[in-house]
Amino acid sequence: MKLIQVLNNVDVVRAACSQDIEITDICYDSRKIVPGAAFVAVSGFQTDGHKYIRQAMEGGASVVICESAPESKVPYILVNDSRLALAQMSNNFFGHPGESMKVIGVTGTNGKTTTTYLIKTILEQALGAKVGLMGTNANMIGSEVYPTERTTPESYEVFRMLGKMRDAGCDYAVMEVSSHSLMLDRVHGIKFEVGVFTNLTRDHLDFHKTMEEYRNAKARLFPMCRFGVVNLDDEAGRYMVSKGNCHFQTYSAENDAADLVAKNINLKADRVEFEAVIKGYINRITLGIPGMFSVYNALAATGCALALGIPLGEIALAMKMAHGVKGRAEVVPVPADYTVLIDYAHSPDGIANILKAVRGFAKGRVIALFGCGGDRDKTKRPIMGKLAAELSDCCIVTSDNPRTEEPRAIIDDILEGMKGCQKPMAVIIDRREAIAFALKNAKKDDVIVLMGKGHETYQEINHEKHHLDEREEVEKFFKNEKKK
User: Fold this and answer.
1) Coil, helix or strand for 152?
2) Cα–Cα distance between 121 and 137 in angstroms, integer?
3) For the chain, what percentages of helix, strand and coil (3-state, to nearest 5) are there?
4) For residue 151, what are the CA distances in angstroms to 55, 200, 253, 444, 456?
5) Over its length of 484 residues, how does the chain's per-residue pLDDT go in tens digits?
6) Is residue 144 classed exposed, middle or buried when 0-12, 13-18 and 19+ CB atoms within 10 A define those classes?
7) 172-176 vs 425-427, strand pairing mode
8) 409, burial (CB in 10 Å: exposed 0-12, middle 13-18, buried 19+)
9) Cα(283)–Cα(312) distance, rounded to whole angstroms?
C-alpha cells in the first residue's frame, strides 16, 4: 500500500519524504520492525519510541512517523499525535475492517469479560452468526482462540484482529473496551453499533488519578456508538446517558424506570434466575453462573441483544446455553468435600461481589485467598483487605503479581485495612504455599475462593512472567496428598 493511502485522514504537519513509497507494514516497536515498514514513534509511559528511530531504520524501516523531527537524516512524516496517527494508519492499512461487521464494545470496571462472552453466545445461538471476540481472556474468531496480553491491545493489533475477523467472515465483533484504550486512542476510528456500560468502581487510579477522570474515560465510548446500553443502578451509568449522543437503553435490578428490569430474582448456588421485563414483555432468564453480579451481566447482554433486534424469547433460550468464563467464579473439581473457586477479583468491588455471592450459598466457611498487584493503585489495597476480612470467615493474604514491588510491602498495605480483624488470618507470601495451606486446612462444606489471578497462568515478578496456574496447583496438592 502506498504511504499516501496509509496516511489518509492523518493530520500531517510536515512530510520530509515522498508519499508515493510502498509500505509493507506498520510497526511501533523497533524490535519487531520488518523491511519496508512504517515505524510510528509513540511516546509511551515507560519509554519513548523516538529514542529508537535509528534502530528502526537499521532494521529496514522505510519511513518514520513522529512528533518531533529526527536528529539524523531519515525520511519522516511529522504529526501532532503519533498515537492517534497509529490508529488511523492501522485502520487504513487493514482496509477499515470494522465497517464490514457490526462491532459491539463493552466497558466498565467489572463484568466486561463475562458480558462479552454472553453476547457472543446469544448472537451465535439466536442468529447463527459468526462472531469474533477481543478481550482479557483471549481473542476468538468463532471457536478459534488467539492469545492476548491485555484487555484492549494497541490500535494496530485491534485493527489487525478486526481484519482477521472480516476475512474469516464474521458478522459481529464483540470487544472489551478498557478505559486505557479509550484515553490512548486504541479504538479510534471504530464505529460501534452498540456500546455497553456495566459499572464503575474503584480501580486504575494509578493511571486516571481520580474517579472523575476514570468515569470520563469510560464515557468516551458512547459518542462512538449508534446504540448505548447502560446500567441505571450505577450512578456513572446515568452520567453516560448525559454525555452520549446515541440512542440509549437502560437496565436495572432495582429501578422500574429502566427500559429493561429484572424482577423476581432467585439466586442459586449454581445459577441465577429472574424475569426480564421490557415494554410489557416478560421472559424467564436462567444463567448458569451464580451471584448477583451475574444478574447484571445477563441484563447487560440482554439489553445489547435487544438493541440488535433479537427477540427476548430467543435471548432467554440462548442464555440457557451460556457457560461460565475461565477465571470468573470458576469451580475447580476437587476430590474433597469442600469447594474451590477461582475468580479474577482484583478490585474492591470485585472482591465484594464474589464473596457476597459465595456467602449466599456456602454451607461452611468462606476462605478468602488474595493479594494485590504491584505497580498499581496502592489506595485500594487496604480497602480490599478490609472487605475480605469482613466478608469471609478466614483470610489468607499472599502475592498476586508483585511486578517490581516487594511482595511484603504490598501485603503490609493490605494489612492496614485488616487491623482489628478477629477472624483467623494467615500471611503466606509464596502463592503456591498459600494455596496448599488453604486446601490443607479446609473442612467439609467450606468454600475456598482464590482471588486475583483468574484466567492468568503466570505471576509477574520484575518484568518476567513465571508460570503459575492455580488449577495445576490444586491438582498438584491432591496428587501429593494421595502419595502420603
Assistant:
1) coil
2) 16
3) 35, 25, 40
4) 29, 16, 27, 37, 12
5) 999 999 999 999 999 999 999 999 999 999 999 999 999 999 876 678 899 999 999 999 999 999 999 988 899 999 999 999 999 999 999 999 999 999 999 999 889 999 999 999 999 999 999 999 999 888 999 889 987 766 568 999 999 999 999 999 999 999 999 988 999 999 999 999 999 999 998 655 556 568 888 888 899 999 999 999 999 999 999 899 987 789 999 999 999 999 999 999 999 888 899 999 998 899 999 999 888 999 999 999 999 999 999 999 999 999 999 988 889 889 899 999 999 999 999 999 899 999 999 998 899 999 999 999 999 999 999 999 999 999 999 999 999 999 999 999 999 999 999 999 899 999 999 999 999 999 999 999 999 999 999 999 999 999 999 999 999 999 999 999 888 7
6) exposed
7) unpaired
8) exposed
9) 7
CB atoms within 10 A of CB 413: 17
CA pair distance 251, 254, nearest whole angstrom: 9
Rg of the Cα atoms in the chain: 24
DSSP 342: E
pTM: 0.86
Amino acid at 273: E
Cα three-residue angle 259-261-266, rounded to 5 degrees: 170
Cα separation, 231 vs 199, whole angstroms: 7
Strand partners, 450: 342, 369
d(CA 36, CA 151): 30
Give the separation between CA 48 and CA 62, rounded to whole angstroms: 20
Q: Say which DSSP state 373 is in.
A: -
